[in-house]
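Posting this for the archive.
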Amino acid sequence: MEGRTREVALPLRQHQDRSTQEAQASSFKDRDEGISPNKMAVGTFLESWLEDMLDVISKRTWVEHESIVWLHLNLTIGTRKLSLLAPDDIRGLYRSKVRFGLKPSRVRRIHLTLRRH
């Protein structure tokens, strides 16, 4: 192996420290402080969350979350007011996706995207 160099795959993004994550969460809170949850739709919240996560998570993970938001969440619960969103709405979403024929792994990814908020 003389004269050959070994290529090493580097991670797409280094994990950020806690203070960076807290600063980003604070900037999100400050930016959307003027919008009352009584008036904000779930879809609006999800879109702003996606925008904020663009620099926090890897591009591949972001694209996965974006597709879930646009294909599954905005179409079903996107117009619902954030303050009126209830656990029964989320359970109904999961049931409808399973009845529609989505694989359980895809429904789990939808769940994981919602949990990130």
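The chain has five helices and no strands. The radius of gyration is 18 Å.
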